């Protein structure tokens, strides 16, 4: 079921059916929340849909899951996305705190373009 929900969510994303994509990803994490990638991709879809507060929660949960399981593959990307969402929510101190936990010079593609850790910190007023 989980693999099917992931696959169908990707089909919906490709078709531009973001609401359906989000619904499947939400169902996916509700069925068992142990995979950081699921929360990360849900956060991306939520952010692109304008649900920035929900996206921030999803990215934070991705970080928590990755740390709890010692699976850091998504940690830096999730922290960067979390910081970007927090900046949009004017929660700049939280954004700076998360940026500080990311390796110097780290860059990733956020909605709107490629950003570095240092650029996000400047955006947050650090």
Question: How is this structure best described in words?
Answer:
The chain is mainly alpha-helical and 126 residues long. It has seven helices and two strands. A two-stranded antiparallel ribbon has the order 1-2. The protein is globular.
Which regions contain 5 or more consecutive residues with pLDDT less than 50?
none
| Relative helix content | 55-70%
Oligomer: single chain
Name the structural class: mainly alpha
The tally of strands reads 2
Judging from the principal axes of the Cα atoms, what is the shape?
globular
Number of helices: 7
- Main sheet overview: 2 strands, antiparallel
Rg measurement, Å: 14 Å
**Strand arrangement in the largest pleated sheet:** 1-2
- Amino-to-carboxy terminus distance: 44 Å
Brief summary:
The chain is mainly alpha-helical. It has 7 helices and 2 strands.
How are the secondary structure elements laid out?
Layout: H1 2-14, H2 18-30, H3 36-48, H4 52-69, H5 75-88, H6 92-99, E1 107-110, E2 113-116, H7 117-123
Antiparallel strand pairs: 1-2
């Amino acid at each position: 079921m989980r693999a099917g929900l992931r696959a169908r969510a990707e089909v919906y994303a490709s078709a531009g059916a973001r609401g359906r994509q989000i619904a499947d990803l939400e169902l996916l994490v509700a069925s068992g929340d142990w995979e950081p990638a699921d929360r990360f991709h849900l956060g991306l879809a939520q952010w692109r849909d304008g649900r920035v507060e929900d996206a921030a929660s999803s990215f934070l949960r991705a970080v928590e899951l990755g740390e709890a399981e010692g699976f850091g593959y998504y940690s830096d990307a999730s922290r960067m996305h979390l910081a970007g969402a927090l900046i949009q929510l004017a929660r700049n101190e939280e954004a700076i705190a998360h940026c500080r936990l990311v390796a110097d010079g780290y860059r990733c593609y956020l909605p709107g373009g490629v950003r570095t850790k240092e650029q996000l910190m400047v955006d947050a007023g650090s």
